[in-house]
Amino acid sequence: MAIERKKENKFDNIVADLDEQEAIAQKKSEKVVNAITGNSVKTKEIHDKNGRVRIVKVAEKRKTFPVYIPETLYVQFDAITTAYGKSNNSAIVELIRDYVTEKKSVLNEI
């Protein structure tokens, strides 16, 4: 009884790698589109009284707040974000994320 060995084709491996990279890129682009459109979705486990666990998609709520700054400061901020190729909103979100990450220890003290 002879054991049949399947010959591996190096092109099949390359195609499989490219397919995997394409799937990863597709997932990343879907996340970006969802973030831009505000349709970011998180999942949450809900335990009901019968002991069943359900996974439910929960849309993330977005908050807006007014910011009052001097016009000269805004002009400089706008010039910097334009030079970096970012929108003002994304730069503000980045600043807030950095601030929260830096000050997260305060939440543990409360």
Description:
This protein is α+β, with helices and mostly antiparallel strands and 110 residues long. The chain is built from four helices and two strands. Strands 1-2 form a two-stranded antiparallel sheet. A hairpin with a 5-residue loop joins β1 and β2. It is flat, with a radius of gyration of 24 Å. 0% of the residues are buried. The mean pLDDT is 80.
What's the structural blueprint in terms of helices and strands?
Blueprint: H1 10-37, E1 41-47, E2 53-59, H2 71-84, H3 88-102, H4 104-109
Antiparallel strand pairs: 1-2
Q: Which structural class should the secondary elements be placed in? A: alpha+beta
- What characterizes the major β-sheet? 2 strands, antiparallel
Topology as H/E string?
HEEHHH
SS summary, helix count:
4
Helical content (DSSP H or I, runs of 4+): 55-70%
Point out poorly predicted stretches: none
Query: Which strands sit side by side, in order, in the main sheet?
Result: 1-2
Bulk shape: flat
The overall strand count is: 2
Radius of gyration: 24 Å
> If you average the pLDDT, what whole number results?
80
How far apart are the first and last residues' alpha carbons, in Å?
73 Å
Percent in strands: 5-15%
